[in-house]
Write a structure and sequence with these properties.
Blueprint lengths: L5 E6 L3 H12 L4 E5 L5 H5 L2 H18 L15 H16 L4 H6 L3 E4 L3 E4 L2 E4 L2 E10 L3 E3 L27 E5 L3 H12 L3 E5 L11 H14 L2 E3 L2 E9 L2 E8 L4 E6 L1 E4 L3 E3 L13 E2 L2 E2 L12 E3 L10 H15 L14 E3 L4 E6 L2 H6 L5 E6 L4 H6 L5 E6 L5 E8 L2 H4 L1 H8 L4 H5 L10 H13 L3 H11 L4
Parallel strand pairs: 1-2, 1-6, 2-3, 6-18, 8-9, 8-14, 9-10
Antiparallel strand pairs: 4-5, 5-6, 7-15, 11-12, 12-13, 16-17, 19-20, 20-23, 21-22, 22-23
Bound molecules: flavin-adenine dinucleotide.
């Protein structure tokens, strides 16, 4: 057999593919990167970056409206959605230089635009060019799943791929889906002045999280004006641009109608595995996702897969982690495996909801012996100073106090969670966090205070009696 032309051929130039390509090239590999659309993928163009930028504009509008709480005269913010989306586009443009084809070509990577397919287990064809490589890496990501609601193909609907480029007012928005994307967009558009209705299949929003935590987010959104219809399924949708009608059915079988000027579909994700000729390459899929082992090797040992196309954790930081596992396996031939124990994530609503490790519900389902400790933000002085008192910290420990999971719903939860990420990764106990000095007055004090809750639990009346006897106390 002829020597392959490249060491690594990366298919898909999003978060996962770019890290593999850049990492491979910097280690001396000859790399070709194939992208069918634009570099940067969902995260830069239609995901993390635009959504967090939109949320920030929404927060500014909310602060103006809410200023009275802080002794400052409130006002009704004048929101021009075209200007807001222009800022979204400007932020993308500022960041996209890191993901530009020129930058990658400057690293010596052959960047090819086009959608190709495998023609055999060791060859990929794109634009009449046949590419051979020692290793292939499939990183083609995911796209919005469109639920089978009658009539949906006949109406104009938005997804994360189009919502950040609208430039007309959105008086009323129906959102299908109460997961992280639906919830972030519900709050953003409400704060920017839209009347938002969320239709959610599950009994609660953010169904991956414990109910007591997701309920804090739901109550805040309701307070801000979001209307929720939970535990129901969408049946039919009809209408035209600016006038959309959705019929949904609640659990008791009753049908209801909701109207809006716009409809946003945020009802899950579908893996981009079609059209790649995977059958010719002997690469198996399950429910559209590529099947891999813990080293991210597909059923064809020459081909790896990483990021959303593998799942199940659809986050940019997981795509980057996957990419590092692939590089260690493909280049250094190390048996590196994906991390499954300590995976953090955050929904960037206000308040944010962040988690790492096991949840209380999962601990119950797994039948393990555990303890739960909670501490509310209202008892943290900094939270009072900032008027951000909704929410709590929650930790799950084993019977010996070792941390198994942590979650926070409250201000800056996505930043605060990282102390637990380290603690759980290093198999620490609640006592380790309790013994660490935390700066006063920070929100991070909550991480020590919730750990203190475990320590205080040890102070039973019998323990107190013995302390008094041993140390001669008189109280
Ligand atoms: C609205 C929204 C908000 C999000 N917010 C966050 C967040 O706050 N934090 C977070 O961690 N994650 C967030 N995510 C998830 C995150 O964007 C994804 O997990 C991440 O982009 C996955 O990276 P990837 O490389 O696997 O896929 P992608 O980034 O989607 O990249 C895949 C690339 O492959 C290309 N491609 C597809 N098919 C082919 C083909 N046949 N040939 C060649 N190229 C192809 C695509 O054009 C794309 O460029 C969000 C997602 C959405 C939709």
């Amino acid at each position: 057999m002829n020597k392959p032309e490249f060491d690594i051929c990366v298919i898909g130039g999003g978060s996962a593919g770019l890290v593999v390509a850049a990492g491979g090239a910097s280690l001396g590999a000859k790399v070709v990167l194939i992208e069918k659309h634009i570099l940067g993928g969902d995260c830069l163009n239609y995901g993390c970056v635009p959504s967090k930028t939109l949320l920030h504009s929404a927060r500014v509008a909310h602060t103006i409206r809410d200023a009275g709480r802080y002794g400052v005269e409130p006002a009704t913010p004048q929101v021009n959605i075209a200007d807001v989306m222009q800022r979204v586009s400007d932020v993308i443009k500022t960041i996209e230089v890191h993901d530009s084809p020129e930058r990658f070509r400057g690293m010596g990577i052959d960047v090819v635009f086009g959608a190709g397919k495998f023609t055999s287990p060791d060859a990929f064809q794109v634009n009449d060019r046949t590419i051979t490589a020692k290793h292939f890496v499939i990183a083609t990501g995911s796209r919005p799943a469109i639920p089978p609601v009658e009539g949906i193909e006949n109406i104009p609907y938005l997804t994360n791929e189009s919502v950040f480029s609208i430039n007309e007012p959105v008086p009323s928005l129906i959102i299908l889906g109460g997961g992280p994307i639906g919830i972030e967009m519900a709050q953003a558009f409400t704060r920017l002045g839209s009347k938002v209705t969320v239709i959610q299949h599950n009994k609660c929003i953010l169904p991956r999280e414990d109910d007591d935590l997701s309920e804090v987010v739901k109550q805040r959104l309701e307070h801000e004006g979001v209307e929720f219809h939970l535990d129901c399924s969408s049946k039919r949708v009809s209408g035209s641009a600016g006038n959309i009608e959705l019929v949904f059915e609640s659990r008791d079988g009753e049908q209801h109608t909701v109207r809006g000027t716009h409809l946003l579909v945020a009802a899950g994700r579908t893996a981009n595995s079609e059209g790649l000729g995977l059958e010719k390459a002997n690469v198996e899929t399950k429910n559209g996702r590529i099947v891999t082992d813990k080293r991210l090797r597909t059923t064809n040992r020459r081909i790896y897969a990483c990021g959303d196309i593998v799942g199940p954790y659809l986050f940019t930081h997981m795509a980057e982690h996957h990419a590092s596992v692939v590089l260690r396996n493909a280049i250094f031939r190390l048996p590196a495996r994906i991390e499954e124990r300590v995976i953090p994530w955050c929904t960037f609503s206000d308040p944010e909801l962040a988690r790492v490790g096991i949840s209380e519900t999962e601990a119950q389902q797994q039948g393990i012996q555990f303890n739960v400790y909670k501490f509310p933000f209202k008892d943290i002085d900094r939270a009072q100073a900032e008027g951000e008192t909704d929410g709590l910290a929650k930790i799950i420990t084993d019977k010996k106090g070792r941390l198994l999971g942590a979650a926070l719903v409250g201000p800056n939860a996505g930043e605060l969670i990282h102390e637990y990420v380290l603690a759980i990764a290093k198999r620490m106990k609640a006592a380790d966090l309790s013994g660490i000095i935390h700066i006063y007055p920070t929100l991070a004090q909550i991480n020590r205070r919730v750990a203190d809750a475990r320590m205080k639990e040890g102070l039973t009346p019998t323990a107190k009696k013995w302390i008094k006897i041993v140390f001669g106390l008189r109280g």
